[in-house]
Design a protein that fits this description.
By secondary structure, the chain is mostly helical. The chain has helices at residues 6-22, 32-52, 77-94, 97-114, 131-143, 150-171, 195-210; strands spanning 3-5, 63-65. The chain starts with a strand and ends in a 5-residue tail after the last helix.
Length: 215
């Protein structure tokens, strides 16, 4: 069945906003091309917010099908990541705090609702093995946002640091330096490890390298 998905619209809004920020106004004679990127970013993001975002909880739903039915049982970290990433980009462009609030709400849902005792669910194989990594890539940019209210920023900062510490200390095999998608159980020396979960571990470590200390 045909559907419109968060996994395509979130990245599309994100890319359009980045293209607007990337191109200098002087590169276009009348600015219409550059502004078209911003207009498209706002249009796509607004559609996703109106259709697939729960404004009360912060959940980002997976898709809406041709019958108008929203798949609310599938709530994944990567959809939250690209949604809050797009919202953050639009905040940087417009200065409209509503975009920042949307990003924070989506981040709260992941850290408070999708996590248990500060730990995300294991993701050990297939496409799903990369979902958390995509979330980490954009969430760390939000945590680094210095205009974010300090209490919220500290809460996100602590959650992120704790999750990375748990993975490094419990989820990574010190002999092979491999991660299998389980935050609290390292793979055995002879255990095959999927590329997608291991890449998620790499992306979390990469994000920790760019995470700014709180002032």
């Amino acid at each position: 069945s045909k559907s419109k998905n968060a996994c395509s619209n979130g990245p599309a809004a994100l890319v359009a906003a980045r293209l607007y920020r990337f191109f200098d106004q002087a590169q276009f004679k009348d600015g219409k091309v550059r502004n078209a990127y911003l207009n498209e970013a706002i249009k796509i993001f607004t559609w996703e917010k109106n259709v697939l975002f729960d404004r009360n909880s912060g959940a980002v739903y997976d898709n809406i099908n041709a019958k108008g039915e929203i798949q609310k049982n599938w709530i994944f970290t990567y959809n939250a990541g690209t949604f809050l990433g797009a919202a953050h980009e639009l905040y940087l462009i417009t200065g409209d705090k509503q975009y920042l609030d949307d990003a924070v709400l989506a981040g709260r849902y992941v850290t408070e609702q999708l996590s248990k005792n500060g730990i995300l669910p294991d993701a050990t194989s297939g496409d799903g093995g990369l979902f958390h990594g995509i979330f980490f890539r954009y969430f760390v940019k939000l945590i680094n946002e210095e205009t974010l209210e300090i209490g919220v920023r500290k809460k996100f900062h602590d959650w992120f640091t704790n999750l990375a510490t748990v993975m490094a200390e419990q989820g990574v095999n010190p002999n092979t330096m491999l991660y299998a998608g389980r935050f609290q159980k390292a793979p055995a020396d002879d255990e095959p490890v999927g590329l997608t979960p291991h890449l998620t571990g790499c992306m979390l470590m990469e994000a920790m390298c760019v995470l700014k200390p709180l002032k």
